[in-house]
């Protein structure tokens, strides 16, 4: 355990980075948006090969942790999904169920907290706003551009603080 705690961190987003959300984005294109159905369908997300390969590769030199905009109520399904798809074990950082701040704020807050005690080697995320804020704060960022997000998902991430 001691060796792992001194390793740098590789921080990975989930939706649009490791998990393909395309099949469930339809729940966000309705009015009102069906958040319960959107998150309930996450267990059926196919893995994104590029993101999974990067997480597995990063695990050779870094401790992999996950930083997601998913609410805390999705923790068990998220952990099960990661294990099912052979991703490295790692702590999962999630937003509180009642936290509706934009992902760029919640994720940057957690990144700064993590950086107080550990080197963060890289953040891998698909959200342009999160990436821009992290880069501005001095973090090394890989922009996950291997999955297309719907306009509804981007709006949800920025305005509604739901993912």
The side-by-side strand order for the widest beta sheet comes to 3-2-1-4-5
Proportion of residues in β-strands: 15-25%
Spatial shape:
globular
The total beta strand count reads 5
Compute the gyration radius: what is it? 15 Å
In whole angstroms, the N-to-C terminal distance is 31 Å
Q: How much helical structure, as a percent, in the residues?
A: 25-40%
Count of alpha/pi helices:
7
Mean pLDDT over all positions:
90
Question: Which series of helices and strands comes N to C?
Answer: HEHHEHEHEHEH
**Oligomeric state:** single chain
**Helix/strand class:** alpha/beta
Low-confidence stretches: none
Mind describing the biggest β-sheet?
5 strands, parallel
Written description of the protein model:
This protein is of the alpha/beta class and 163 residues long. Helix content is 39%, strand content 16%. It has seven helices and five strands, in the order H-E-H-H-E-H-E-H-E-H-E-H. Strands 3-2-1-4-5 form a five-stranded parallel sheet, with helices on both faces. Helix 5 packs parallel to helix 6. The chain is globular. The chain starts with a helix and ends with a helix. The model has no long low-confidence stretch (mean pLDDT 90).
Which properties best describe this structure?
163 residues; alpha/beta; 5-stranded parallel sheet; globular
Task: Explain the layout of strands and helices.
Blueprint: H1 2-6, E1 9-12, H2 35-40, H3 49-58, E2 63-71, H4 75-84, E3 92-95, H5 103-115, E4 120-125, H6 128-136, E5 141-143, H7 151-160
Parallel strand pairs: 1-2, 1-4, 2-3, 4-5
Helix pairs in contact: 5-6
């Amino acid at each position: 355990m001691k060796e792992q705690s001194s390793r740098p961190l590789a921080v990975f987003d989930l939706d649009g980075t490791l998990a393909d959300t395309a099949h469930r984005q339809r729940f966000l294109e309705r009015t009102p948006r069906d958040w319960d159905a959107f998150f309930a369908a996450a267990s059926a997300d196919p893995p994104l090969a590029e993101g999974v390969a990067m997480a597995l590769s990063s695990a050779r030199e870094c401790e992999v942790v996950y930083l997601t905009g998913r609410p805390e109520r999705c923790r068990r399904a998220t952990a099960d999904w990661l294990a099912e798809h052979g991703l490295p074990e790692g702590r999962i950082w999630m937003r509180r169920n009642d936290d509706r701040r934009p992902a760029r704020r919640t994720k940057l807050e957690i990144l700064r907290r993590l950086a107080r005690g550990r080197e963060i080697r890289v953040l891998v995320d698909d959200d342009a706003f999160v990436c821009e804020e992290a880069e501005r704060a001095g973090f090394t960022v890989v922009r996950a551009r291997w999955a297309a997000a719907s306009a509804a998902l981007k709006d949800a991430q920025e305005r509604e603080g739901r993912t």
